[in-house]
Amino acid sequence: MTETPLAPEVIVIPNHALARWLSLKIAEETGVSANFQFQFPAEFLWRHFHQVLDDVPEASVFRTEVLSWRLYALFPQLVNEEAYPALRHYLAQSDERQQFALAERLAATYDQYLIYRPDWITDWDTGKQPHWQARLWQQLSAGMDERHWVDLQNHYLEKLPSIPKARLPERVSLFSVADLSPAFLALFSALGERTDVALFWVNPSQHYWSDILSEKQIARRLSQGQTTVYLESGNSLLASWGAQGRELFESLQDHDIEFTECFDAPPRQHLLGHLQHNILELQNSSNVADRFRLEPNDKSLQVHVCHSPFRELEVLHDQLLDCLQRDHNLTPGQIAVVTPDLTRYAPYIDAVFGTVPRAQHIPYHIAGLRQVQLPALISGYFALLEAAESRFENERVLSLLENPAIRRRFDIEDHHLPVIHNWIRDAQIRWGLDDNSRLEHDLPVGGQTHWQAGLDRLLLGYAMYSDGFQDYKNILPHADVEGSQARLLGGLAAFIQELGELARKLSTDKSVPEWREILSWALDRFFQVDEEDQRWEQSIHQALQSLAHNAERGRFTGHLPAHIPIDLLKRALEEVDSGSGFHADSVMFSTLAPIRNIPFKVICLIGMDDGAFPRMDRRPGFDLMASHRRRGDRSQRNEDRYLFLEALLAARQCFYISYIGQGIRENTHQPPSVMVSELLDYINLNCQTAVSGDLPAESLTTWHLLQGFDPRYFEQDSNLFSYASDYLQASHQLQKTNKKDGRFFDQPLSRPEYQAIVSLESFIRAFTNPASHLLQVCLG
User: Fold this and answer.
1) Which pTM value belongs to this model?
2) Can you list the domains of the chain with their CATH numbers?
3) pLDDT at residue 222, as a whole number
C-alpha cells in the first residue's frame, strides 16, 4: 500500500497502443484498471519539472511547433547578416511556404540537439562555438524568456536532493521504452535515487551480449588487423539486428541500476521457437549435428511472395482464415499485421478485409493511421478553402454543394442539385467569379461565362418574363427559372457571394490572429453542423487556437499568406489517429512501433520489399549529428532492424512475412528486404529439411500467382488454396472457357479471288494487322 492510496500510478510508455494493451492486461489480472497515468518520456519529465521547480510553464516554448514561428520571425533579419551565407542564399531564392518549411526543419533539428547534444547547447549558450548554427541558436534563445530543456535539466539535477519527498511521485514505471536518450536516462536514474523508478525492458538474451559483433563488423575489424580471438558474433541475428537495444543496454550499465532477470524459455518444437531459443541462449546451430530439423507441417514461420499489395492482402486474408480454422483457440485479437508503409496499404486493407462475405469476415481495425480520409466536415472545409483560391471552375464550386453541412447553411436540399446543375449548364457558367477574376488571369473582361454573369441571367429570368431571345441591358434572361424556385436561387446566389468574400479575404497577407478569425469565420459562415459533426467542428477551432497560441509564444507578429496557416491546420487535423490502438477483439493493422514487445500469437509483416525496410536515415544536410554520431542517437535504420527483432521474439505461434517479389507484367523476380534475406540465410545455415539437399528457406516460401481466381488455387493436390467463393466461381468459368474448341472456323475457307494488282495500302494493312485483313478479304 502506498502512502497516498489515491495517487495515480504513473507509467511511461512509447505509444498509445502499448498503454491500451497494458490497461487490458491489468484489468485481466486484477479485475479493474483505473487511476493510471500513461505518459511519454518527454511529457512526464516536463510535467515533473513543472510540479517540482519554480517558474516552469505547462508547455515548453522550445517545442518544435513554437520554435518554427520564432525562426520564421528571424528570417527577414538574417537575410541582411553576413554570418549566414547559406541561409541568405536559400531565403533569397525561396517563397514563403519554402521558408516556413525550412524553419520547421531547423526547429526539429534544434529540438534533437536539446535532447541528444546538451553539451553543444551549453557551449553555444556561452559562445564557445563559432558555427553558424551556434550563432543562430543564440539569437533564437535570446528572444525567449523561459528556460530550455538543457538549462532545466541541470537546474533539476542540482535541486533534486533538496526537493521534499512528498512532492516526488511515489513510483514511476517505464515500460518498453527502448529509445531513451542518454540525457533522459540520466534524469530517470537521478530520480531513482530519491524514489522508486522501475524500467521494464525485454532483453533478447539472458547472456551478456554487448560485445557481440555482426559478420560485417567482424570482417571490417579483421581487415584492420584485429585478431579473431576477441571478436565474438554470438547469435548472428542478434548481432546484426540488435544495435539499438545493445546501446540502451550499455547506457543502463553506466548507471547504478539493480537488474532483476525474469527469462522464460520459448518452446522448441517448431522453427519459430528454435530461432527464439537461439537468440535467448546467444548461440547458433550451424553445426550439422545441432541443426533444427524442419518438418513439412511446420507453419510457425512463413514467407509469401506476391505480385502487388492487393494480392498480398488477398493472400493474407486466406492465410488468416486458415490459421483461425486450424486453431479454434486463436481469436482475431491475438493477430497483428504490421507494415512499414501503412498509408500505402490502408486502401487495400479495406478493399479486401472490408468487402468479403459475412461468413469469411475477420474483424479488423487500422491503428495509428493519419487521417487520409478526413471526416466530411473537415474535408469539405479544406475543399472550400482550396476553391476560394482557385479559378472557380463550375465543377469545383458545384462539388462543394455535395457537402450536407454547406447545403444546410444555404437552405439547399439534396434533390435541388440536379436543378442547379441544369441552371449552370444552361447559363453557360464556366469559370471565374466575375470580370476581376479574368483580369487576375490576364484575360480580357466582358465574357459571359463567369459566375456573376450567369447569376445575373438566372435572377433576371426569375424577375421578368423571357422568351429566351430578348435581352435586357445586354443581359439575356434565363427562361427556365420558376417562381417556386426563388428560395433555391437565393441560396445559390448567397453561396457564390460568400465564396467571393472568402476569396477576397484570403488574397492578401495577414497576421496570425487575423487568419484565425477569418478561418473561424469561414467555418461558421459556410457550415451548419449537426450533432454528429460537432466534435469535428470543435477540433478545427481547437487547432486554430493552438496555431495562434504557438505563433504568439514564438513571438511572430508579422504577416504571411493564407496557405501557411492552412497547411499547418490541415496537418494538425490529419495527425489525429483513426484508431485507438490495441483492440482485444479484432486484427490490428499498424506500423511496427505500436506493437513493440506486445505478444501476439500471430504476427504478420507485409510490404517487406527491398528498399522499403529498413528505412534509410534521412537527416537534413545541416544536421550536425549526422556526422558526429554518438551512442544512443536515434537511427531510423537501427530502430527498424530492432523492431523486426522484437516482432520475431513477440510472436508466439506464427511469424508471417510477405513481400512483392514478382513483377506484375513480366513476372520477374525481385528481392525482399535485406532483413528477410538475412533471416532466410540464417535458416539455411542453422536448419535442415527431411529431404537431403533441399534448402529450408525454400520450403518456407510460397510463390503466389498473379490472379486469385487462377484454377491452381482450387486444385485438390495443390499447396495453394483460397477461401474466396467468388474466385471459385470465376475459376470454374475460366476452366470451361479453356476447355472449349479453340478453332475459330468450323470449315475450310474458300480461296480468295485472285488479284493481279494489289495496292500498297492493302499490302501494308495485311502485314500490320493480319487478323483484320483475313476477316475483311477472306470473309468479306
Assistant:
1) 0.85
2) 1-58+148-201 (3.40.50.10930), 61-145 (1.10.10.160), 293-372+582-616+634-714 (3.40.50.300), 376-574 (1.10.486.10), 741-780 (no CATH)
3) 63
